[in-house]
Each structure stands twice: as structure tokens, then as C-alpha cells.
Amino acid sequence: MSSCLPLLVFQHRNHVNNGDDDQMLMFSISQMTLRTNMEPDLVANKNMCWTTPQGWMLVVSPSPSSATTAWLWNPRTKEKIALPDFEEEHDIPPGSKCLLTHRDATHPECLVVLFEYKEPNMWCCKVGGGDGDGGVHGGGWCCYTYDIGDYEVPGGEPPTKDLISSVAAVQGEIFFISSAEDMCAINFSSSTDHQPEFQYFDACMVDFPEGMNSGCSWLVEHDDELYLACVIFVGFDADNIGAIHVYKMDFSTEAWCSVRDIGDAVFLLEGGGNMGASCQASPLGLKGNQIYFMKNFNADDADLCVFDIESEQQEITRVHHHEHLNLCRKPFWILPPS
Where in this chain does the record put each KIB1-4 beta-propeller domain (predicted)? Predict the structure, then answer.
């Protein structure tokens, strides 16, 4: 797998021979080739896996006991880092967002963090064991219910709790856009009561060009900096991409600044969960200053869009020709840990 990274993965149901385990179609953007089930252990025996923008994957395997085994897995070296078991009462939905607080999984303060996609819950676990004092750094999995306000439902329905959407980890903190006027950094080290601390700051969301009223946004960490990638639609038509813009956060002014150059890097964007990642381009045989994402935001097809930031040109690649894949989740990226 190492020589094929990064991989765009289509995890789908296996209907051949009544197989219970899922299968994975994997498209290598560096080799422009399609592979099948290079790593069957990721989904064997009803294993669940989550990718992270840092490259490491969280793998959870059911066990005969009441607990469930968990570990981090490096797709480049196949190294494993054991994590505390999930207990029977821990029920993390497969569609949750997962990331590490640090690019280096061996950093002494590194945490694995998952955000549920339907409920305002986040799960945390310290990599390499904890201090035994409970909370974030206690050595086991902890669940926190956060409150970032309510989402007003149209039509007079009761409001629902707002959920953290796109997230990115930069130097130990997790950032998310909390509203059109501000952002928030989740700090796991400064709290004295072992609870994550939510630190809000003013940062207005960027404006879309005239005639473009909707879009999708991703926060991306690159080279210890925070970026924002926006795919913007004409009107409200997700099939009509009108512009793709990239911004970098200037923390000195707490403002997004438009950029046309991300250097020797590529951004890899996921449709499910709005997760974004970056990696160095030339070591992987890729052209830098480009963005990769699935073009169709409404249906699950196989059109991969490659956008050149400098020239503002798009290229569409059909990555497979399977007409009726029963996808278990939106396509996702497996990338090499930095």
C-alpha cells in the first residue's frame, strides 16, 4: 500500500458469496490505478476504521469480551499503536469524524478525538496512555457532550443542538467555525478540571462571489497553519461549481486571507463529514498547489475533480466504472502520515 498512497477509498457492501465483510475499492492518485482490497484486515471480522487528516487510521475490532480492541495504524509502515479498549457502553457511530491533535502520533500530548455526526458528543483518548487522573488525560476513552448553541429549524419546529462540522487540528488545538462571525479553538491542555476548553475568537466567514449563494467548506491544516478551502456553487445548484477559493488564517488579525499558492502540497477533501487533509506533493509523485475532491455533491459517482489553484483549471477523472456500488459511506482518503 505504501507506494500507492494517497488512496481514494470506496468502501462498499460485499454481495458475492453472501459475504458479511465490506470491501474496498482503492484508487491511487499517484499511480492512477484502481486496486481492490489491498488491506482486507481494515474491514475484516466487522472491524470499523476511521481515517485521520494526520494519516494514521483508528481501527476498532469487536472482541468476544464486553470490551472492544482499538489501535492506531500507519498505512505507510503498518506500525500499530495500541489504544485503550472501547467498553460495552461506548457506541461511536461509524460516520464520526476522527483526527489527532498533533501530526506526530507519538507526541506526549497527542489525543485521538472523534466527533459524532448526529449528536453533540466528542470522544477523546490519549495516545500512549494517560496520567490516571481521569478526564482527557486519564488513560481511557472519555465522552463529552458539548454545547455550542442551537440550530434554528425552519417551519417553526423546535430548535436542535448545533453540531461541530468541519474541523482541523493545528499544534494541539482543534479549530472549527462556530458561526458566520466567529471561530473556536478546543484546547485540551490548559484546562484544570480535565475538560476540553472552548476558546472563541472573532473571525468572520468569507463572502461568496456575486451570484453564488451556497457551497461546501473545509478547514485544512498544512505546515502548522490553518487553511479554509471553499467549493462554491452557482445559486444553490450543487451540480454547478462556480468557484473554488483557498484562504489562510492570519491569527495576528484573526482574518481569512485569500491565497493562490499552497506550495508543494495538495489538499484532499472528503464529502462525508467535511474533513480535509494535506500532504507534500513531490515525494508522492504529484503536482503541488492542487486540490482533490469528488465532484458530485448530490450522488455517489466516480468523478474526481483535480483543481489547480494557480491556473484555476479543473480536470475530471473517472476513477472507476462500477455502476451499482452499494457504498457504506462517502468516499474517503487514506494518506501517508507526515
Answer: 27-308
